[in-house]
Structures are given as structure tokens and as C-alpha cells.
Amino acid sequence: MRTLMKVMYPALWGLLLFVGNPGETQTMNGCYIGAYLGRGAPDSSYNSPAAFNAISGKNHYCFSRYINAGDDNDLLNSGHWQWADTLKLAGANPVFFLMPFGGLGNYANGARDASLERFADSCAGLDGPVYLVFGHEMNGSWNPFGGTASDYVSVFQHVSSLMRPLAPNIRMCWVAIQAYGQNAYLPFYPGDSFVDWVGLNLYDRDYDENNQFYENQLDSASSYLDFYHTFSEGKNKPMMIGENSLFDPNRDPTLSGQRLPLSNTQQSAEKNEWIASLYNKDSLQSKYPNLNMIIFFNVRKHEEGFSSLTHNFENLVADWRIPFDSGYNIYSGLIQDNYFIGATPAGIEEQETSGVGKSRLKIFPNPCHSVAQIEYSICGESGYSISLNDRNGRQIRILKEGMNEKGHFAMKFSVDTLAPGGYVVRLQTALDDFSVVFVKPD
Description:
The protein is an alpha/beta fold. The chain has two domains: about 1-340, TIM Barrel (Alpha-Beta Barrel), CATH 3.20.20; about 345-440, Immunoglobulin-like. It is about 25% helix and about 30% strand. The chain has an eight-stranded parallel β-barrel, surrounded by six helices. Strands 14, 15, 16, 17 and 18 form a five-stranded antiparallel sheet that branches. The chain has a two-stranded antiparallel ribbon with strand order 9-12. A hairpin with a 4-residue loop joins strand 15 (about 370-390) and strand 16 (about 395-415).
């Protein structure tokens, strides 16, 4: 499959391999866009990557997923690779948040090494980069692996040293939470030789209770302790915003202990202001040229211990999602700029042969949940066939075949019976023989 992708889509392959090896400098002019969409259908807010791309109007470069790296059953769950394969075949890339929820002690004396090695082998089997964020927000006390800098640094170094030689396409990402104080970041930094990307998570929850979003959040988080200049520019590392969003829990002022939720309109307006500030191309380009990835935290979820200056909210349902239905879609409008780098589903590309024939094959929508349309040209009066094949090239069935036809044609076929994943549609004539990748998402 890797060979097929390289031959069919050399431009896409080059994009997937761009982000460099350990120690490589970052010189790209632009910012990859991504999203965290939850873990699956049990989350009522869940959108598939294909659905999110459709509603946002742009195919995103990456999508992220949480994995309990202290649980072998989760770490080795085959569903992670089915998900990653589907992303790759659609031109996108996985960002795995490996979370040592069981505590850093589980990694002592090589206890987790065998599972981590198998995970790395699976990463190596994927085309292009795989981003691994190990124990994000480690500088926050709420995580079972947070607050103990020396232990965290030691385990990060071990995981990085173990996995990167097995999978050169792995990018080890160190992502802290925005913080304030002299020891907010530096004691937790594992060292230049173990880290490929640095990053921050940025959130606003109206802690000051003034009904306003925290404008220039990135400026504040970066300049207070000079995160960007110290860890990205100073160490020549590309930087990501691993998560970002806004949720205001309360209209203010209110009495202590009282909850008065914002209306949907108020919540959307505040969130759109946040998006307009953070996804400001001119500001990012001029101030943060090494900021090369932004991931939006697009889920609705329960939050425990959600607090502000005078309030504590237990078991609060927080909607962090982009307000696509707000009447003015700020996010979709901003990311259309070429500065924000997305991905193109491979199957949309047209192919031309180098022989005397010149055929065309297009499949859309791609990815597709139900019925796909194929448009194709036959450039010769001879036999032809269009077949559906699995990702390894094994034929599943013939979709269409004929004789003595020449011209442009269209047909539809149902994907209802296909399992989620990547497929190859192949057109063969006497003069041409080529394929395109087709994806059925989860």
C-alpha cells in the first residue's frame, strides 16, 4: 500500500513526509490544522473526521485520539490502527495522546516496554508521520503523572529512546498546559534530543468572571514565561497547540454558588471571538512562524472540578465545540486561507497514464458513508473493467466491465456493506491500468 501511495500521489507523499526527523529544523511557512473529535459514537458530540471536514469546509491535516498508555488492552487495541489507516488513506495524519493514567511507576524496570515496542511497530507500518504526545499537561497537578518533574522527564526520555528507533516516522511531542510561575515548564522539559515538537494547550473558561474571552491568549501564555522563544525558537523546534477551545460556565456577575448559564447565542459569540483571535493568520505568521500546528478540542463532555474566581461547578457539561450553527461561521472562513494547511483525500486526484491512452477516474464524495459516484473516461475501443479491491490490492468485486466503449461515463455504487477503512478502485483497459484510493470512514 505504501508503494501504491508513493507512485499514485507523489505530491501528497512529499507532504506527509515533510515534518522532519529528530533534530531537524522547521522552516515551513504555514500551520497544519487538526481537531480532537472524541473517542467514538458513545460520545454524543462525536463527529467522524469525514463529517467534521464536510461541516468545516476543509480537509484537516490531522486528528487526535487519547490512548491509556498504562493499559495494555488499550495500548494494543487494533481499533486505533483501523482509525489511523482510514486517516492516512484520506490524506490526514494521527496524533496519539499516550496518557500514563496509571502513574509513571508503571514504566519502571521496563514493565511497559513490550507493549510500547508493539505500538511503535504499528506506527512504523503507517505511511508518513505519526505524532505521539506523551503525558500532556504534565505540569498540572490534576494528572496522576503530573507535578513530579524528574519522574516525568525520566519516563518521557525512556519512551522516546525506545520508540523512535523502531519507527522513524514517529514525532515525539512534549505538550504542556498554559501556566504561570517560575517553574511552570522548564523542570518538565525532557531535553532537545528526546523531543521533536513542543507545544501548549490553550483554554479559556472565564476564570476572571467578566463575560469576556481572554484576548491574545497565546501572546500571554508565551510571553509570560517566554514559552515560544525558549522552547520553539530557541531550541529550533516546531510548535503545536495540542488543544484549544473556550467555554464560559456562567453569566456574571452572580452570587457565589449560583449558576446562570449563558444562552447558546452568547456562548457562540464568545467562542467565535476566541477563534478569530487565535486563528489570526497575520498575527501567527508575524509573531510565531514556528507555530506549525493547531488542534481544536471539538467535543461536548462532563467536567469535574470546573472552577472560576468565586465558583466551583461539579459535573458540569461543557460544550467546547466550534459553533458551526451560529449564523456566522468564523472558523470555516479563517481556515480557507492557504496559510492553514489541510489534506486532500487521495481518491479525488485524477490519474493520467504515460502510454498512448489517457484515461480519467474520479470518485466522490470521498470519503463516503453510503453511495459513491465514479466518473471515468475510456480512451480506446477495447475491453475494460472497474474493480473494487482491498487496501492490499486483493479484488473484492467487479463494479463494471464492458467492450468497445469510448468516451466519458458515470456510475454509482453502494458502500453500505463495506467495513470502515481504505479501498482501491482500479480501472483497467488495453492502454491504461491505474488505481485510486477510496475511503469509507467510521
